[in-house]
Amino acid sequence: xxxxxxxxxxxxxxxxxxxxxxxxxxxxxxxxxxxxxxxxxxxxxxxxxxxxxxxxxxxxxxxxxxxxxxxxxxxxxxxxxxxxxxxxxxxxxxxxxxxxxxxxxxxxxxxxxxxxxxxxxxxxxxxxxxxxxxxxxxxxxxxxxxxxxxxxxxxxxxxxxxxxxxxxxxxxxxxxxxxxxxxxxxxxxxxxxxxxxxxxxxxxxxxxxxxxxxxxxxxxxxxxxxxxxxxxxxxxxxxxxxxxxxxxxxxxxxxxxxxxxxxxxxxxxxxxxxxxxxxxxxxxxxxxxxxxxxxxxxxxxxxxxxxxxxxxxxxxxxxxxxxxxxxxxxxxxxxxxxxxxxxxxxxxxxxxxxxxxxxxxxxxxxxxxxxxxxxxxxxxxxxxxxxxxxxxxxxxxxxxxxxxxxxxxxxxxxxxxxxxxxxxxxxxxxxxxxxxxxx
Length: 439
Fold this sequence. Notes:
Keywords: Coiled coil, Cytoplasm, Cytoskeleton. The chain has 439 residues and is mainly α. Helix content is 84%, strand content 0%. α2 (67-101) runs antiparallel to α3. It starts with 30 loop residues before the first helix and ends in a 5-residue tail after the last helix.
């Protein structure tokens, strides 16, 4: 904002030059002294006398001696007031721009306002330059008229001294204008520097916003992953519950088979006992048959023995049939038992395999999700560190820029004071040249 420097208005006519600056020869007295010397001279004569040795008394600009001078003096006073008002306007615009620039987060509307304020400041500065040029033109016009009067009126007296004094004034004016142009160039450099720093600050702000946006995206991604993990866990738990329910159903179906097996085993044991008893009876019957055969051969009573033999054979056939039926039932129950045991073993193996596969898949998915969460946490930590560094860099840059702005403001105030001093000196010398000498 170095270009926002405001040129101080020229001092009013008769204002004394600042202390510490050399006064040229023949320097006019201030307005108060001139006013005090004029009545004393009026008492001695109609017009104030000029004593070149003691000092020159000049009539103030805008007196009734010359209507053109009076009109120029009024215009000059009006321009001085306008320059003061223009300086106040520029100060207000500068303050608004500084308030917006010092904010941490600048919105788009504030950026537009800042651009409008900068354009307005450029226009006001251009207007101020025009007013200053007009005021300097009036001063230069008065200086040229004064130089002509001095050269024309005092040609017969001291032409050499007037010419040398005019050349010295012109050289000093040129020197002062060069200084003013140097100060304006320095102000333009300050403006470029401030623009660069504002661009750098905007870059840091964009980086900070980008890092903050990345952090928010990482947070959203982590939330999504957590939701996905919960969904996967719910699915795995639901599948495990379904497998457990099926396994329980199969177990409930197979629980009755051991009881049936025990019952059949009891029946089989009873049948075996009956078989053994029948075998024992058969052995006894066979022994009796043999004994009867011996008796028959001995006694010859075959009819009775044959009838007993037939009965015994019938009983033996019945026992054999019962035994075959019991063996067939036993074989059937054994086959059912084997098939049931095979089904139970198969179901156990399949259930174990399903549970193992489910556990392996859940473990793999858990490891993958854990690795992804770790990676995202690392990315989040890096983003947070980058955001913290961006914030620290931003604060550092803001502090540095504030320090530079304060330095530039101090330099700008010093430049304004020097410009004001030079303006006062120019106005002082211009007033010296504009005041005509009354002989």
